[in-house]
Design a protein that fits this description.
This protein is α+β, with helices and mostly antiparallel strands. The chain has a domain of 43 residues. Helix content is 38%, strand content 27%. The protein is built from 3 helices and 4 strands; from the N terminus they run βαβαββα. A 4-stranded mixed beta sheet has the order 2-1-3-4, sandwiched between helices. The longest helix is centred in the N-terminal third of the chain and has 14 residues. The chain starts with a strand and ends with a helix. The model has no long low-confidence stretch (mean pLDDT 94).
Length: 77
Amino acid sequence: MHVTFYTKPGCTLCDEAEQMMQLVSEEYPLTWTSVNIEDDDDKHEQYMLMIPVVENEGRVLCYGNIGYADLVLLFGD
């Protein structure tokens, strides 16, 4: 599955979530496009209190403190 990963520079939770996504992608078909919310005023307003955010086809799948288990539940078999 390909998802959009909303993030911003200096976000520790975002860095940790992306590391978890990398681990999950080693076992499950997960790819993503990272989007810096600071580059888009609408996305910044929408997600500034939620990041990191994992979204697919306009639907938020998870946000905030995203762990390995959260992602496996979403993308695992």
